Protein 1
Amino acid sequence: MARQKEFDENRVLRKAMVLFWQNGYEKTSMQDLVNHMNIHRRSIYDTFGDKQTLFLRALQLFEENVERRIQQQIKPITSVRLAIRELFEMAVYSNDGSPAGCLIVNTAIELTAHNQEIADRISKSFSKTETFIYELLLRGQMSGELSNQLDLGKLAASIHNSFIGIRVLAKTTDDKEKILNIIDSTLAVLD
Amino acid sequence: MARQKEFDENRVLRKAMVLFWQNGYEKTSMQDLVNHMNIHRRSIYDTFGDKQTLFLRALQLFEENVERRIQQQIKPITSVRLAIRELFEMAVYSNDGSPAGCLIVNTAIELTAHNQEIADRISKSFSKTETFIYELLLRGQMSGELSNQLDLGKLAASIHNSFIGIRVLAKTTDDKEKILNIIDSTLAVLD
DNA sequence: CCCATTCTAGAACGCTCATTCTAAAAAGGC
DNA sequence: GCCTTTTTAGAATGAGCGTTCTAGAATGGG
């Protein structure tokens, strides 16, 4: 055996994630990462590989965080309306000092056209979220909260599309009330 | 007098616009611009200023093009539903060989957080589009096509939000039918 | 204590970036 | 034909990029 790692891998990866989230892939330089992760340049390469691999790890961490919050905070909610509202508001209010908006949507815009691996990841991520919304709607129909007349497939796709829009606005607007109003209107289709 | 410009300023600016539209600001290098605009590096600086100024001109050209198409293709449509549908489909189908998606939405994601001038431009652009949708809805109410019960302000904000989502999906998906279905569902709120 | 490993430090690599330069060729008005 | 301007061409600048390097200090297990 030998000397142990002195930094918490997840903690420094989180720092990288926040940087990419805030500034995007291209605008985040290795020097920025060195400065904010507070470990040596060499340690970054040894631990995470090159910049692109580090980015993929950061994206993965972001997705895991979202998934955890969905499992813990959204799934237990009995009312479908409230669950979707909570899902949307998760993207509007960052619990800690994390950046506005969503790394997945940012990445979709910045890198999808230039990197097939990332394009697949984004596509899968979008599908997963849309499917989750679909399952919420289905649960709502079975519990009687929602009408049986609704076309859940189309509805899930449409609500998911609105969710993407909200994550763009969350990055570009600081008018929270406007976004909350949009959430209200979006949910009104369930009535 | 002296020698005249040999290139059409608008034609080469359009080339720059397409590059920024396709690749984003950071991923488009001056060398890329020199290669595709087919004029000398020096001529670019003399005619358009530095990279950022050139980008602002390209963004302006994009907005003008959108505005022209709205005036010519959308405004004459009598049915509000059809007008909004046409507006949305404009973003899905690029008439000529122009890139998928929307330079304004791309720029909102990439540059809003780092450049106040651009943030203001994007904000103004979003407001303008939302106002246009509002005016369409108002016209629909006055003509009797839409119910008087609808809250047009909230509705315009919500439809505009969906429009942003569609312009993200237009860049990241090539499943046109899925987007058309989303447009259907989005317009269903007018029924 | 020694060895293996990982940390730190900072220089160095080769490349690309945006921008500016010198220089000469082209073209229209006097 | 000269003057002015714009074109071309391509090199040069200085900074920053991602990545790798040499070198030494720290630390834990045998």
Protein 2
Amino acid sequence: MSVQERKRRERAERERLIVATARELAEQQGWDAVTTRRLAERIEYSQPVLYSHFRGKREIIGAVALEGATEMAAAVRAATAAVAGPRERVAALARAYLDFAERNPAVYDALFQLDGGLAYAREDTPEPLKDAFAALLESLGEVAGDGVDPGLFTELFWASLHGIATLTRAGRLPPEYAEQRVRLLVNRLAVA
Amino acid sequence: MSVQERKRRERAERERLIVATARELAEQQGWDAVTTRRLAERIEYSQPVLYSHFRGKREIIGAVALEGATEMAAAVRAATAAVAGPRERVAALARAYLDFAERNPAVYDALFQLDGGLAYAREDTPEPLKDAFAALLESLGEVAGDGVDPGLFTELFWASLHGIATLTRAGRLPPEYAEQRVRLLVNRLAVA
DNA sequence: CACGGATCCTAGCACCGCTAGACAAGCGAG
DNA sequence: CTCGCTTGTCTAGCGGTGCTAGGATCCGTG
């Protein structure tokens, strides 16, 4: 049975290679450049091999998104862990979030902009996505204010961050005042 | 010279037809369904005719976006005109904005999600876009608070609305609590 | 009336996501 | 050891995309 085991391992390894390559290619040249042909060429297999791992391009995007969600959750937790006050934690969270979006635009797109075939805000939402939201909730729930549902507050704060992230990257917002926007957002939305 | 004049008119008319048809098709079946072939068929001309009016699909999207910007500015001004207090005006603005995004998803996408080849937040930004931002600024500037730049505040508020609009429509936010999110946003961000 | 320029269409390019079917390699059974 | 079968991979191709070259046709003008 060790032969089958080895094959299983190799297959899993190749799947990781596909996702990593897709991500890399998207990060380098944008998702438009991630075609099944180019992707297949980069991993040095033919196109149909991709379809033995994923149903289609959507699922590949989805896989990158899940990977990104895990990393984002970690980034947010790392940024907030060492900070003392609740409001300062939220400011750190906001900066970490926007920083992640800026440094990993393709991953961020896979998560929130493109269709990766993932379910959001439901029971059958994949664990990494739930956990990423949970990571936000941990810090944001503390500053929701009296009588305000922490979940609802987190959604709102997150939506604001998302709006800033996407509009900035699309050139709709001048990047110079990023820090001031964050400060204003935290000052107004977060309650002591 | 009247013949040339008539031709010029007919040409302009056909251009409007192209934009209107693209918008209609996008609103009915999504932008993915707006292919140059389908569009050409609907306006009962061949594909190359489209390219005698626009450089490519991008520019058609851009044209729809400009049309949408004008309408959105009007919608926002109409919603805020009859409302008395500054904060109530802002609440009305927020609802009008989100309502516009929900009722015209394809137009909203053309404006802020897709690449229409338009310049934003610059001198050479097309007038309708500047005016749409101005429409937001008119009401939002009043509640920026002391020492806060009205433009910066408007950008932030707008980004929040944009985040809510996109995440809601993409199924990332449950639609039930839309009104509560708006109230919370206005209560916290807008200063009396 | 005949010409010439504007206008439009047919046909085709290179690319896309995706899949059917041929082919080879490697396993277990006799 | 050999045969047959499963499993894995590839070649080739389908229908679609955005876009364009080049020929035909129409129509106002001299």
